[in-house]
Amino acid sequence: MTAGDYSERIPNNVDLREDRRLQRALESWQPNFLDWWQFMGPTLPTRDVYLRTAINVGREGWAHFGHVAMRDYRWGIFLADRKPDRRIGFGQHKGEPAWQKVPGEYRAELQRLIVIQGDTEPASVEQQRNLGATAPSLYDLRNLFQVNVEEGRHLWAMVYLLHAYFGRQGREEADELLRRNSGSEESPRILGAFNEETPDWLSFFMFTYFTDRDGKYQLGTLKESAFDPLSRTCEFMLKEEAHHMFVGTTGIDRIVERTAQLMVENDTDDVGPYGAIPLRTIQKYLNFHYSVSLDLFGSETSTNVANYFTAGLKGRWSEERRSDDHRLTNDSIMVDTVTDEGQIGYTEVAALVGLNTDLRREYIGDCQIGLQRWNRILAEAGLPQRLQLPHIAFNRRVGTFAGIESTPDGQLLSTEEWQRRMGEWLPTDVDKTHVRSLMRPVHERGKIAAWIAPPRQGINGKPFDYDFVHLA
């Protein structure tokens, strides 16, 4: 077990002081990161925020709570404890000792995987930077900032790997992670979902439920990697990612709860005039964020992902619970397709090239759990309406379904009919304007906006009316 050094300028548990060259390189990157945080991070001025800071990766606890100024947050480098006898669990190297250094033949592929993952971390901070000005409560404001600082720490984790294991090219890629910006025309983020706007809190909760859940599954596949430092980094990141999804899950819980209350009290589906978000608008936002997040898993078939698996770079979700041979050389899988007759169907392909489909299906099953929660809230309110996930072909721009248009029920449409009817299923300018009209800040202790229900409990045992954020 590696003891953590939390007194250093860069808190870490990777013996950074033993590699002075690496330490100097990261300390020279640090001012650029802080400049990025100042100009691209949260815009709402604060004195301090009640934040969780990583202090330990062991079972005894890895988080410390306290009020800290966000610029002084202890961004650090934390890897799960090393398992000395860890073996590669899949692919052609299955059973061999996990790699502590980057094999030369896989250098470019590993670097690319780390860069793509690293690029998503600052992107979400940039997307959410203006949300603090319209927070519905100090509790929610605190949760936003917790997500932001942890995304910043996840960036640090990826930058550490680039600096420590990929030489000059790695250092250059680390610099590029701060030069790209979400939504920039000249230098956008790598993945499309991370160039979308997050202009309101309904979007934020949908993002942290659906898009951060994609992050969970991507981190889960990288946690299986034969490259042990990457595996250990992602294992620790998953601990923090769980909070981001908690924010999304419970945020939507509370929006649905408040909407249901007003629907019952006023005996109407149209709760917009009563200062809430109509259920049909919630469904439209859900449709958008879910479909965009499905695209993040890539095409239904991929030779690149097959090669990653075979090489041991990227495994499957919960690889250890799979009952096959973990090599998949003779296995097959049914993947989604559009048939020659133009119908949505399935086709059989080699399991190795269908790994994106395998991961996406794990994700879809997980997303259904949130739907069950939200629909239970509606049922308990005595309402017949239910939220639902749209068909996998709906509003897709990557993979098999990119060339067709579909209703949320999976009925194929012509391009003309899609253009005419898409406002039935995706947020319109009118929907967005209404949602944004509700986004008025509530920065008073114990108070909350009228469009969302209060949480059932605070953070770390603190009550809802705790002073989670001190504004400047």
UniProtKB/TrEMBL annotation:
Superkingdom of the organism of origin: Bacteria
GO biological process terms held by the UniProt record: phenylacetate catabolic process
Record GO cellular component, one term: cytosol
GO molecular function: oxidoreductase activity
This protein's name: Benzoyl-CoA oxygenase subunit B
Originating species: Rhizocola hellebori
